[in-house]
Amino acid sequence: MTDNHSRRLTQSVLVSLNGVISSPAAWAGPYFGPGSAAQSLAALQRSDGLLMGRTTYEIFSRQWPAASGPYADHLNRMPKYVFSSTLRRADWENTTVVPGDVPEEVHALKEADGNDLVVYGHGRFGQTLVDAGLVDELSLTIVPVFVPTGTPLFRDGGQNHRWELVQAGPGHDPGLVDLTYRPAAREVQG
User: Fold this and answer.
1) Which one, out of 4, 118, 125, 170, has a CA that is 20 to 30 A from the CA of 95?
2) Distance between CA atoms of 96 and 120, rounded to whole angstroms?
């Protein structure tokens, strides 16, 4: 958990009923309407930094620079940080490649001045952030579909973390469910 001087890091994840997170554009789109669009824009506007791994960067940098509208405009203007040891440059406006130690670099970003930070998805980069205890809020949107194959939300080998549910309810469009978790307070061993 962060102290009062740190920026909060929210990880926002689309997940199928059977726990798949990969390729949400192929299965989540039909469930997202005006309510989800408005909620996504409001969440993005609370953030002034987008953190992503290389895979998310490659997907987003093909999709968003050519898009327009309030969401795309904010996303394109905001500072973006892509964490990769192999990517040498980023062509998407306001994007910085961060080749260093992920936990150390993200911790430094959280300590810098500014509003909250956001991460979309939960691939290897997202798992690294959770394992390092850097995620302050895990926001899951459950999409009512079974996806036959794909990457599961949590993979074997991750750290054991306890989360507490702080909000649950219907999503902003029919069929969706929103769950918000924060890291549970750690018990002090005496």
Assistant:
1) 4
2) 17
What pLDDT does 123 receive? 85
CATH number of the domain bearing residue 117: 3.40.430.10
- CA 142, 7, 127, 123 torsion: positive or negative? positive
pLDDT, one tens digit per residue, over 134-154 is 999 999 999 999 999 988 887
Mean per-residue pLDDT of the chain: 89
Distances (CA, A) of 152 to 1, 63, 140: 25, 24, 13
Dihedral sign (CA 89, 85, 126, 22): positive
Backbone angles phi, psi at 76, to 5 degrees: -70, -35
2 occurs within a structural domain? no
| Separation between Cα atoms, residue 175 and residue 16, nearest integer Å | 12
